Amino acid sequence: MGRGTVADRLATVLGTVLGSTQLPVRLRGWDGSVAGPAGAPVLAVRNRRALRRLLWSPGQLGLGRAYVAGDIDVEDDVFDTFAALSSVGRLSETGQMRPVTAAERVALLRTVAGLGGLGTDPAPPAEEADLGRHGLRHSRRRDAAAIAHHYDVGNDFYELVLGPSMVYSCAVWDTPEVGLDAAQEAKLDLVCRKLGLTEGSRLLDVGCGWGSMAIHAAGRYGATVVGITISEEQATLARKRVAEAGLTDKVEIRVQDYREIDDGPFDAISSIGMAEHVGRARLGTYVDQLAGLLRPGGRLLNHAIAWNAGEASWSEDSFIARYVFPDGELLGLGEMVGAIEAGGLEVVDVEALRRHYALTLRAWVRLLEEHWDDAVAASTEGRARVWRLYMAACALAFEGGAMGVDQVLAVKPGGEQPPLRRTDWV
């Protein structure tokens, strides 16, 4: 890779971090020098602080911190750039990286020293989570702090990223051309049909977000809905949207932990994009609680991301754990189905939506980039960079099969039987 210009030596640094002698991107140094294959996506290194971040955290976390802080930047298509970076060496599409060896650390130190990049470890960007002071992992207090870190970043920011539907989970696409809002409406309608909602059905929506599922179930199917979230900002906007829809007599939005609900039974429970926050150690509690809130014959729809990459989940030092979903844990589909069955529910249908989530994430990235200046004004530039990086990287992970997302429909024994086939909801 050479040791001449700044860019040549930056190529050596990146090659050491990635564990590859083949540079997958073109590098632009802070002095304007360029190195790397012609035509490859360009990664710009703005300053020497980026080197210190990589020296102290030589992996995904160091790269992520440098990007969020603006020490490195993507000059070309974000998907092409991240796909190139994940195509070589120790960095995979799942975001997991093998640690650098002792010899690689010594080589990295020498190259960084030659570039004048030695120094103390820079403070992480303000957008990095620090939950240690909030108690034990997956305690109610710490779960509330984790949710606030991700969701209480400004409703205006989320409106720009998610669009009018305000649904923050995988859409269901008939074709890629239907558009995000239509695909999200199709997802909400699919959930309602799977749950068998009719006029007067009592629905519990766990992790209700900004109220879209509750509004759809009440407005289109006549259900009476209790929606719960532990995000104060979500609840505020959800109540406003419910009122604007004229559904305050049918929808109640609560700031409440799922472990605190005691006013069952419900005819149906939807949990869409919430189980990822529960944690493996609490999974049994989660299923037992929801099962106990269902009437006999009642249905549970659990919609959750699944880990397909042969790993337990992302590591605590990964970018997504530090910046996006602190304390979040992904489970395999088999583990989720097993837990639901162990909780006394009968699994009657499983639908995999992996490709649908890739389309959804790409749509969110487009909205973020189209409204970049407004998104930065609504939050921070660092926050916008976090969302851009994580959504693009996750889209690639779904496309590559490292992650999936599944809807598991289960029934509590003792009541009416579900349909013989899927004809009620296909």
Can you tell me about this structure?
The chain is an alpha/beta fold and 426 residues long. The protein has 16 helices and eleven strands. It folds into two domains: 109 residues, no CATH class; 285 residues, Rossmann fold. The strands form two sheets. A seven-stranded mixed β-sheet has the order 7-6-5-8-9-11-10. Strands 2-1-3-4 form a four-stranded mixed β-sheet. Strand 8, helix 11 and strand 9 form a beta-alpha-beta unit. Helix 2 packs antiparallel against helix 3, helix 4 crosses helix 16 and helix 7 packs antiparallel against helix 15. This is Cyclopropane-fatty-acyl-phospholipid synthase family protein. Belongs to the CFA/CMAS family. Keywords: Lipid metabolism, Methyltransferase, S-adenosyl-L-methionine, Transferase.
> Which second-level CATH architecture of the largest domain applies?
3-Layer(aba) Sandwich
Strand fraction equals 15-25%
Provide the gyration radius in Å: 23 Å
In round numbers, the mean pLDDT is: 93
Multimeric state:
single chain
CATH class of the largest domain: Alpha Beta
Enumerate the spans where pLDDT stays under 50 for 5 or more consecutive residues.
none
Compact description:
The protein is of the alpha/beta class and 426 residues long. The chain is built from 16 helices and 11 strands.
Question: Mind sketching the topology for me?
Answer:
Elements: H1 6-18, E1 26-28, E2 34-35, E3 42-45, H2 49-56, H3 60-69, E4 72-74, H4 78-85, H5 102-114, H6 140-151, H7 155-162, H8 180-194, E5 202-206, H9 212-221, E6 224-229, H10 232-244, E7 251-255, E8 266-272, H11 283-293, E9 294-307, H12 319-324, H13 333-342, E10 346-352, H14 354-370, H15 372-378, H16 381-400, E11 403-411
Parallel strand pairs: 1-3, 5-6, 5-8, 6-7, 8-9
Antiparallel strand pairs: 1-2, 3-4, 9-11, 10-11
